Every structure is written in structure tokens, then in C-alpha cells.
Amino acid sequence: MKSKKVLSVLVTTALAVSVLTGCGGGRGTGESAPAANTVETAGTEKTDSEPANDSSASDSSEGGEVVGVALPWLGTQNWAEAEVMFKEQLEAAGYEAIIQAADQKVPQQQQQIESMIENGAKVIVVGPVDGSQLGSVLEKAKDAGVYVIGYDRLLENTTGVDGVVQFGSIQTGELQAQALLQGLEELKGEAPYNIELFGGGPADPNAPNFFTGAMSVLQPLIDDGTLVVVSGQTDFTQCATADWDNSKAQSRMDAILAGNYSDIEIDGVLSPNDGIARAIITSCENAGQPIPVVSGLDAENESVEWVWSGRQYSTIAKPTNALVAETVSIIDSLLGGNGMPETDVTVSNGVIDVPIYELPPVVVTKDNAKEVFADDPDRMALLKD
Ligand code: BGC
Fold first, then answer.
1. How buried is 294 (Cβ within 10 angstroms: 0-12 exposed, 13-18 middle, 19+ buried)?
2. N or C, which terminus of the chain has less Cβ within 10 Å?
């Protein structure tokens, strides 16, 4: 028995976020000492974005307040874009940017944040490698009068966080699951459908949230037999992909196919992001399977091309420029002496209720790609007829 799901695809993207310029004192520390006039970038595994290590750009910021940006890695396009866009937008707003990426290593990120504090940062923006492992260095930042903003991921188990800017993470998972169901109904005939489930890196607080959101949609259909998880692996711990490592996801998919699908077809796979989606699809192609319906996240260039050609069913756009602009507007408010902007949303991080500034993720399939990317000439250029 097939239960029909109605999927409403959101096509709203434009998030008007004004970037105000403004400088002021830090958190109760009065005027700041001018910091070293450098822009640093560190990290590995760049994707196809241009590098942001043009130190000549630091000349544009004379004596502006120092803002640190600590990114977890540059291994997916959204983080590589964040590195470039933070540099551009912070400097355009008159700040001096110290931007570093931690190559998925917690101690490296702790050190980078320490050095941002030492270099006089008034605000530190953090996309944590591990949401729960920065407690003491963030408390130290707080004690030094530095504002801390979580970027794209929650900062857990610490009072040293003033707010978090992100795309709705539970909602992201719900949208991934809804897109998977829509694709199954569209492309794979009548239920039941054979599916498998993948999650992201367990240290990233988004990963269990994406999975929880997705399972809130999928579990009832697993329970009623519409969806069959043939491997039987339905717990987040079984489905997670350490460090968001695409090759680990591909190996897990290879093993699942070899062990369970020698004489049946796989219809769909829940994937937490685009890199893992491409690994899953490649594994299925190598095993001689018809391409299953696979979800994704990030609207990475390569996956936008795959969605357009029908190789990947869906992705989710979470535009980095909008998230960076929202973060910079909060920095302006803080350093302009106006505190954190109002928000109705808070989330407990285990210790305090953290103000959350949430932007909406948007599902992308071949059907709405041109609408979603109407204001994104780079991605529009990938949609070739
Ligand atoms: C981000 C995703 C990204 C993943 C792996 C998540 O926290 O929200 O956009 O694909 O990390 O880098």
C-alpha cells in the first residue's frame, strides 16, 4: 500500500539582509587595541572556489575592528565559499578579518580560536568541527570580552556563545526526506520502495538533526511497509559518516549493495549532503544498479549539474552569501553597541538557551532549479539546455 505524500517545494530564496557598516567597542571592553594588519587563511582540501589568501586585501582595512572566523574545514563547497565570502563581506564592512579553517581537527580549531583572542578579535565566528568540544576556549573568549557567534552549526555545552546563524537543520532533514519520497513516486513506480539511509559526521550537531528531521517523515512509512530499509540499518549511529568523508560513505554503500542487493534493485537513498550523494550514486553505478533517487544538500556545482542531467534527484540550496551577510549584520549590531538583534527562536545547547537566527533551506530538483538559481548566475550557468 502506497501512501501519497504531498510535497510543497519552497522556491523562496532571496533573503534580504542588509549589511551595515559600523564599528564600536567590544563586549564591555571599550576601545580595542589595533591588531596585526593581516588576513590569514589556513586549511586544506579546497574545493573549486577561488582561494581567499590574497593578503593584499588586508590593506583595505586600516584599524578596523578585528573579526575572527574559525571554519571546520574546506572540504565541501559551502565552507570554501564561506572563506571567500567572509573575507569579502567583512572587509567591505570595514573590519579586519582573520579567517582560518581547521581541517576537521578539534585541537587545531581550539588553537586557532586562542590565537584570534590573542590577536584582539572583538567577535569570533565559529563553525565548529565538533559542536561540543570548544567549551573552554569559548568561555575564555567570553571572559576576554569577545562576542562568539556560531555559524551554520550549533555551539554546544558552553555559555560562551551569543547566538547562532544557520539554516533550519531539522527542516533540512524533513525537506531531504520529502524530496526522496517525491522522487520515488515520480520515478520508481508503485511502493514498496527499497531504500537505504545515510547520515553526516556525528561530531557535527547538524548531522543528527538532519537525520531526525528526515526520520520524522520516513519512519511512519517504514513502519507501514511503504519503505523497506533492506540492510535494516536505521539508527543514526549505524548510518552516520565519520567526518563527512565521502569515501567512507562510498565504502559503506558498496558493502550494503554487496551484502543485500545482489538480486534486487535499490530505489532510493537518503543522503545528508551532495558529496555523499555523489559517492552513493557512484557506488550504485559501479554495482550495475539503476540510479536510485538520492537526496542532497549544499547545491554544490557538481551536484547542480547532476540534478540537471538527472543523475542526482535533488539537492538543497542554503546560500552561503545570505548566511554570511546575516552574520555580518549581527556583527555590525554588536560592534555598533546595539547588542544581539531580536529573535524569537532559541535552542538549548545543553547549558544555556542560545538565540538562533535561522534562514530557510530550499529544495532543488530539475523542475525548479531555474527558479531557485534565478539570482545566482554561477549556478544558472551550470543549467545548460
Ligand atoms: C553543513 C553542510 C555541509 C556539512 C559537511 C554541515 O554542517 O551544514 O552544508 O555539507 O556540514 O561539511
1. buried
2. C
Contact 341, 330 (CB under 8 A): yes
**Cβ-contact 278, 302 below 8 angstroms:** yes
> How far apart are alpha carbons 147 and 334 in whole angstroms?
8
**CA 23, CA 222: separation in Å to the nearest integer?**
53
CA 234 to chain CA centroid, nearest Å: 23
Indicate the DSSP class of residue 369.
H
Ligand 1 close to Cβ of residue 304 (< 6 A) = no
Q: Are strands 121-126 and 66-71 parallel, antiparallel or unpaired?
A: parallel
Residues 321-346 have pLDDT tens digits of 999 999 999 999 999 999 999 999 99
What does the alpha-carbon distance between residue 160 and residue 303 come to, in Å, rounded to a whole number?
36
Q: How far apart are CA 176 and CA 200, in angstroms?
A: 13
Contact 327, 125 (CB under 8 A): yes
Q: What is the DSSP string of 212-255?
A: HHHHHHHHHHHHTTSEEETT---SHHHH--GGG-HHHHHHHHHH
Separation between Cα atoms, residue 148 and residue 42, nearest integer Å: 20
Mean pLDDT, to the nearest integer, of 54-71? 66
How far apart CA 225 and CA 207 sit, in angstroms, is: 26
Number of H helices, E strands in the chain: 12, 13
Q: Which residue has the cell 565559499?
A: 81
Q: Is the pLDDT of residue 56 over 50?
A: no
Question: Is the beta carbon of 246 within 6 A of some atom in ligand 1?
Answer: no
- The response to whether residue 206 sits with its C-beta less than 6 Å from ligand 1 reads yes
Distance CA(86)–CA(104), nearest Å, equals 19
Confidence of residue 385 (pLDDT cuts 50, 70, 90): confident
Q: How far is the CA of 241 from the centre of ligand 1 (A)?
A: 12
137/158 Cα distance (integer angstroms): 9
C-alpha–C-alpha distance, residues 51 and 306, integer Å: 25
What pLDDT digit, counting tens, does each position of 153-201 carry? Answer: 999 999 999 999 999 999 999 999 999 999 999 999 999 999 999 999 9
Rounded Cα distance, 24 and 145, in Å: 13
Distance of alpha carbon 111 from the chain centroid:
23
Residue 190 CB neighbours (<10 A): 10
